[in-house]
Amino acid sequence: MELVIILAVAVLLFGGKKIPELAKGLGEGIKNFKHALKEEESKPEEKKQA
């Protein structure tokens, strides 16, 4: 029920056309964040030497 209310408020604030753009940007941001985390996990040797 809470999700429906949140979605309704988002539609009212941003309009129906803007929401897909916001979702795309959010998805790309999450993807880049996860990619950066994986890069850091694969390079532990460099941190130990410093």
From TrEMBL:
This is Sec-independent protein translocase protein TatA. NCBIfam families: tatAE (TIGR01411). It is found in: Cell membrane. HAMAP family: TatA_E. It comes from Paludibaculum fermentans. The gene is tatA. Keywords: Cell membrane, Membrane, Protein transport, Translocation, Transmembrane, Transmembrane helix, Transport. One of its GO terms (biological process) is protein transport by the Tat complex. It is a single-pass membrane protein. Pfam families: TatA_B_E (PF02416).
